[in-house]
Amino acid sequence: MYIGLLPNVKPAQLNVEKGKSAEQAIISPRTVEDKEVTAKRKEEAAKKEVRQYSLNGEIEKEQIKIITEFFKTIEEVQTSEESNNHLGESPLPEAEKLAGQVRKVRDGLPLELNQDLSDNDISTILKASKKDLNIVREFTEAKVSELMEKEMSTTETYNAHEEFEVDLRKQNISPQLQDAILIIGKSRIVANIVYDAEKTAEKKEQAKNNVEPVFILEGQIIVNEKQKITDDIYRQLELVGLLENDNDYQAYIGLLLLVSISLYLIHYQLKTFGLLEVKDKPHILVYVMILLIMLGLMKGVSLFQKNEYTVVAYLIPSGLGTMLVYLLVHKRMVFITSALLSIWASILFNEGITGTFNFSMGIYVLLSSLAAPMFLTERKRSVMLLRTGAFLALFNIVLVLCLLLIKSGHYEWKEFGIYILTAAGSGMIASILTIGLVPYLEDGFGMISSLKLIDLASPNHPLLRKVLLEAPGTYHHSIMVANLSEVACEAIGADGLLARVGAYYHDIGKTFHPYYFIENQMGMENPHDSLTSQQSKDIIIAHVTDGVALLKKNHIPSEIVDIAAQHHGTTFLKYFYYKAKENDETVCEDDFRYPGPKAMSKEAAVVGIADSVEAAVRSLTPPTPEKIEALVKSIIKDRLQDGQFSECDLTFKELELVSRALCETLNGTFHSRIKYPEEKN
């Protein structure tokens, strides 16, 4: 399994060299992120991001402080001049006095304003009245503060300067004073943003995150035929796993885990259905053989995909495996087999792209293989061949059409026709191969299939005809036992069909002395009345050994022979024992027991229980549900205490299920009927 799937999981290694031309176009087998290209694009996106700046509120405060200190200095100089006048100091010439005031103002001004304001500007401000000074001071502080609250770069300060000037010209002051204040305002309206390293880093990271990862897509052409193998192309080939890489164990490990899980589930199912016992080794070998056949067929068909004949995949006889499992191994193994075949199909039919999964093919194989056993019925092999093949072909056609419609592809009628033919062919091929392989697998592994059982169950089988004609009562009894046995075996997960067919033949030995068994006497005198207990016992017990000999003579499968040999086990013939004991106290109990062996399969044990129950229930008058339940439980209890189930691994829970199934079936058979009044003349 591992070896067969590995080439479709692990891409084939290419032998290419840098600088040389590619001999053929090379396609990516999987989708892989090209992290190197992605990283380059991220770096390019980050470089395109501009430096980020943030508002610095301290700059605004600093400029307002300079403006406030300027007007404070002006007021102090003006106040100092007024004080000198009150003290009666000799007045200086006006020009000299103004020059002195200007010097005092400059001495108290910050360096920034000293550089911006001329002596004339300061003189103009000094000459202003207190009213005008209050107006320009309040306006300047408020307007500069308003403009500096917004983020502003160096280029954006020009617009702010214009706005300051426009609003300043609206103030009711002299033009000369406006010009002087305009210089102060413009000099204090400066850029108030600083480089923000953290914000810049965030923007760059955001730009990187916005870059979509770059992928080399599954099915993408990496290099065209005759194209030169560049370093970048070589890197891409290496990235998708097409070049030798000693460290690439992912495919090996993944497939190993998948195979391990599959084997565990198969083992669990085989154990659950009791197929790991020594006597069931042929079932395990046949199951392995079936899996190998299916893997080989799938692998062979998948090779055609390299030639682009992808439609041929639908020709695979997906129903073959599950029908063989249903007929030869165990019908409940069909589900795990279908799941396994589905996984194989999705890997093998990956349309030439290794390492990928073809989910539509997986769905096709899953549903087709699950449906196939549903069309198997209890008919002749030839009839079953035609019926199963036809129904499976029709089912596959509908299934393929559904998948094509889901794909929403554009198909021509010719393409639809090809898909329909391959799907129909799949169903017919599966049916033909099933009928052809079953006999070889049966003979090769000494097994009995459902098909063989169906043949043996035919009323036209010579041995069953013999029972019907020579011992009709026994025939009817066997039919009733078969119905009971099948239902009971189904309830505990045993092989119901095997139990049914085994029940048909379990009493075939009675045909040697049919009238010595009560169901065949039909009003005649009981022949045992003229025999001794020992003679009667010998005839009764002989029906088992005679039946086994007859079955072997007619080459009936050993599973049926075993049921006939074991259905009585080593049970005790109480009636004839106690009758013999009336005449001879030294009679040995062991002489009145069946020779056995005890039931060695669940099917043989169930047939034995059903045989006793069916014979005994006819003596109940009336057969009410309560009486039937008590009788069934009593018979099972007697056999259990007698150790008749010690070789067949029947659990107490299973015995309870058998009891319940028998009671339900018998209650349905012997249900109470309405007693209609007789007609009066």
Automatic annotation (TrEMBL):
A Pfam family recorded for this sequence: HD
Domain of life, source organism: Bacteria
Question: What does the UniProt keyword field contain?
Answer: Membrane, Transmembrane, Transmembrane helix
Q: Does the keyword Lipid biosynthesis apply?
A: no
Xref: InterPro entries: HD/PDEase_dom, HD_domain, HDIG_dom, Metal-dep_PHydrolase_7TM_extra, Metal-dep_PHydrolase_7TM_intra, PgpH_phosphodiesterase
Instruction: Locate the transmembrane regions by residue number.
Output: 249-266, 286-305, 311-329, 334-353, 384-406, 418-441
The stretch of residues making up the signal peptide is none
Q: What is this protein called?
A: HDIG domain-containing protein
Ranges for domain HD/PDEase come to 470-625
